[in-house]
Design goal:
globular, alpha/beta, 497 residues, Rossmann fold
């Protein structure tokens, strides 16, 4: 079967939106599944909805990559957005045409093409997602490298070329999953300016004429379809083969920290996309961590002990779903600094996301490193609820007891792979966490509920403080742990409702 390109697409009878020619307005470092299912989709929708009329040039950030495959398909690829939206099942296909080409800067001709693009009057934005390890200063990089090895080094080369050509500043949108990603990227660029002895005028250009934005991205992208039967079925339906086909969830939000004028300049808001430009993304990160991630960590450990295996099953159970929603709406949302309507909308979307009929998200996968996760995702909500109301939050307290139960349920052995426990329904499961955490629980494998709760809660290495000093917390957590051990986690969850 023919590989997707513009001619093949026309012959296939596809009747969706396609833009074949447009100015190249975006230089994008990263060509992987996430950016293609998120950023390039957003620009594609902007082309259709508001006539933005722009293309993205992808830059392969490391030597092995997708440039050859992307160029063979003339930048085209198929995107499926799958999940639930307002409670309804969604399986939406779109052929993305916002990408013009992909450059491999480790090939000299493509390096020169990257520099040609840097000097272009059409260029407006630089977008990046080079993984969490991408924004790093490598002092081994030099200005004469073609290209510099690190991403910030490459970006400094690109901006210097543009500065020398007398072209205007750019907006840089960093999507890497680290705190203050835009600020960190700018810090690295300034280090290269100093290391390479570049002129003060260029430093002023980078810091005053260019706009480095920290951003928070939120869309789950499972990536490629791996079932050969489904691939064959889709190829038959499409009338073409597409090795670059990518799948993402329906939900998507892009919070961008930047000046007010940027929201008007970017095409996303006018195109109806969920992309607020805000003075500070920190509250939105807190929203994501406390609600989305906190919901996962808050219910999955007890749910696994209760016999559930994947997230979607939990959303179909009245008790687990009720427990999660009570925890979010009654205990977490009141502690967060954003507008209540915004928080309620985000929490409602979480239920749709967790109930995605296309994703089998295993509870054991979510359980990895739950000690640090509960501390980062759930304990801040616990503390702030307690400070605000003077009462222990029932669901979060039960969640903590379920965490202890999961880590201690009929411990069998400690192996190289992790701590092996036995589930109430009979099968064993292996807990993955820091070795010292696993050794701690193994050492306390014979403790009753009260002794284990005391040992866990006085372990300041785990929590950064002695949790037994919180009035009433130790006694209540021990009581619920004992209940889970005797009557099951589902009973403890039901007691909260």
């Amino acid at each position: 079967m023919d590989i997707l390109n513009y001619d093949v697409l026309k012959k296939s009878g596809y009747d969706g939106y396609i833009l074949e020619k447009a100015p190249e307005k975006v230089m994008q470092f990263g060509e992987g599944n996430f950016l293609r299912a998120f950023v390039d989709y957003w620009f594609d929708v902007s082309n259709e909805k508001v006539g933005w009329n722009g293309k993205c040039v992808l830059i392969q950030p490391i030597k092995p990559g997708l440039a050859e495959m992307i160029n063979k398909q003339e930048g085209l690829y198929t995107l499926y957005l799958r999940g639930r939206e307002n409670g309804e099942k969604v399986d939406r296909k779109r052929v993305i045409s916002s990408v013009s080409r992909c450059l491999n800067p480790y090939v000299e001709a493509d390096y020169e093409s990257m520099m040609d693009l840097a000097r272009s009057d059409d260029l407006e934005y630089i977008v990046s997602n080079t993984t969490e390890a991408g924004i790093v200063y490598d002092p081994a990089c030099s200005l004469s490298d073609k290209p510099a090895n690190s991403f910030p080094g490459k970006l400094t080369q690109v901006l210097y070329e543009r500065f020398k050509a007398g072209k205007g500043g750019l907006v840089i949108l960093s999507c890497e999953l680290i705190d203050n990603n835009g600020k960190e990227l700018l810090r690295c660029v300034n280090q290269y300016i100093d290391q390479w002895g570049l002129e003060d005028g260029f430093k002023e250009y980078v810091n005053d004429k260019c706009t480095f934005c920290s951003t928070l991205v939120d869309r789950i992208v499972p990536g490629r379809i791996r079932d050969p039967e489904e691939v064959a079925r889709l190829e038959k339906e499409h009338g073409y083969a597409d090795p670059l086909l990518v799948v993402g969830e329906v939900f998507g939000v892009w919070n961008i920290e930047g000046p007010e004028w940027l929201e008007k300049q970017l095409p996303f808001k006018a195109a109806g996309l969920n992309c607020p430009v805000v003075p500070d993304v920190t509250p939105y990160k807190k929203r994501k961590v406390r609600i989305l991630n906190g919901a996962h960590t808050g219910f999955v450990l007890g749910a696994y002990l209760a016999g559930f295996d994947i997230v979607r099953e939990c959303m179909e159970d009245e008790t687990v779903l009720g427990f999660m929603n009570k925890m979010l709406y009654d205990e977490v949302i009141p502690t967060l600094p954003l507008e209540k309507e915004d928080l309620m909308s985000f929490a409602a979307a979480v239920q749709d996301r967790f109930n995605n009929p296309f994703v089998n998200h295993e509870l054991m996968t979510i359980s990895l490193n739950s000690t640090a996760k509960w501390k980062a995702r759930n304990f801040p909500s616990f503390q702030e609820y307690l400070e605000k109301t003077g009462k222990l939050p029932a669901c979060l307290t039960t969640s903590f007891a379920a965490y202890m139960a999961f880590y201690s349920n009929e411990i069998q052995e400690l192996t190289e792979a992790g701590l092996v426990c036995r589930r109430p329904k009979g099968n064993t499961y292996t807990i993955s966490d820091d070795r010292w955490v696993l050794e701690f629980y193994y050492d306390h494998k014979d403790d009753d509920a009260a002794a284990l709760a005391h040992a866990v809660m006085t372990n300041e290495q785990m929590w950064g403080q002695d949790l037994t000093k919180i009035p009433g917390f130790e006694a209540e957590a021990a009581r619920i742990l004992d209940e889970i051990r005797k009557e099951g986690a589902l009973k403890a969850y039901a007691d909260c409702l």
